[in-house]
Design a protein that fits this description.
Helices cover about 55% and strands about 10% of the residues. By secondary structure, the chain is of the alpha/beta class. A five-stranded parallel beta sheet has the order 2-1-3-4-5. Strand 3, helix 10 and strand 4 form a beta-alpha-beta unit.
Amino acid sequence: MNLLISRILAYLNGTLIYDDYYRFCIYIVYHFPMCEDITKQNMIDSGIKEESIDQFCKLLGVDNFSGFQKELIDSYLLRVNQIRTRLFDMRCPIMVERLVQNCQNENLEEELEQIYTAIYHSKRIILIGAMYPMSIGVELQTDLITCGKIVLNYNDYDPDMVLHKDDVVIFVSATGRSMAECLKAQNEVSLKQITSILVTQNKMYMLEEFKNTTHTICVSGRYDGVEFNYHLMNFFDVLRIQYYQHYYIN
């Protein structure tokens, strides 16, 4: 069976309902590195019904809350060990060079440094895109949450999903359509007031008159899906490795 945090994120990223189960998952995302201190009463005080807590624990395959907390702690410790084993000696410059070779950006390495710093200082990282590209971001999401960052997929039904200046927003859209749809929902927010990144294949967004985000990463290919997903995975891997090696362990 998957790690408990993986099951929680699978539910959170896939549900279309804003209910106690959703709020349960959000609470865990915010408190995962401090999971030893989570109590049922803490969750009740946050507005989640006790009945819902017990029901969701069973849905996750755990008999009761005490069993849930024990498995959550085990999940956290195991994930920390996995991250250390996989990422500590990873040679990220090779991956960065591969990304540079497949992008239209002239100063990509400089832009990446700015993005790493913004992620470190952010309160939340919001991922916005279609379902399949977002599934590629789960490894990034899980690692950064384990390292203490709040990483959420954008859901317009969540009343707390209002973009703020302390957020880092990453749009993932080969054509740019997902970003355009989000801008309609967030019509009072200027993306240039926050750190926002668009990963796309649409060269139009490299032009100043069409550039809505602070950074546009334009990868090679033409809306073919397969190549875009490959470059996206490389980009997400670079972010999580650089964050771990240069910010988390230092």
